[in-house]
Amino acid sequence: MGTPAEVAKTVKKIITMLPDGPDVQDVVLGKDGIIEAATPESALIDMSSISPTITKKIAAALEAKGAWALDAPVSGGEPGAIKGELAIMVGGPEDLFDEMKPVFDILGKSTVRVGETGAGQTTKLVNQILVGIHIQAMGEAFLLATKADVDPMKVFEAIRGGLAGSNVLNAKVPLILDRNFKPGFRIRLHQKDLKNALEAASSLGLSLPVTGAVQEMIVSLVAKGKGDDDHSGIIQELESRNQYEIRGA
Q1: CATH topology of domain 4-116
Q2: Series of mean pLDDT values for 10-residue runs along the chain (249 residues)
Q3: What are the residue numbers of the active site?
Q4: pTM tops 0.85, yes or no
Q5: Domain boundaries in the chain?
Q6: What is the rounded distance in angstroms from the CA atom of residue 105 to the CA atom of residue 179?
Q7: How far apart, in Å, are the Cα atoms of 91 and each of 68, 111, 187?
């Protein structure tokens, strides 16, 4: 089974998780792709984080051959994948979702069908907007605390139980204070997600100014060779512009 088409001849439910939309298109629609062997019994469950537009194009091509598709991107990063605690957001036919739900339950702790084809990818873009802005806001807040000579770890302990507390705060502040940017989710992948989010917004006639500002910081970091750092490292561009570094006491 050397090609996607050869896999599709023997496996009727195929799960993909690839870096970007062109990769998924190549595997599904390209030469020796899944579509060449697709039948009405075939289904693609794409867990990549890609553009909703590309997702709909792939699903339409499969449906033309009688096959089906779910878009099922995830949140939770490498730690969530290892522990089987991913959040899975699914778009596509409800009956196929119901059929695949036991598989999703193995991979994640939360699986929600949010709508029809493309809805899963749109939800992932929403997730990435929120996470990216949150990390940037954390950077600004803890830069202020550090520069004001207030112990940032004490600040973290003080606010985490209040309204400002969040899963992002709990996961990323300790990494930032330890200067540990070993990748769980790479900055360059977050750049790709925000690019897709901004393009989706533009196609709907929307402006997302804060998302655009965060993306501009990320693009600058990637240009400086930081694209493979964990996305908690987004704060490094803020530090560079202020010539001041956030550190634990």
Answers
A1: Rossmann fold (3.40.50)
A2: 91 95 97 96 97 97 96 91 94 97 95 98 98 98 97 97 96 95 95 98 98 98 98 97 90
A3: 124
A4: yes
A5: 4-116, 123-242
A6: 34
A7: 12, 11, 25
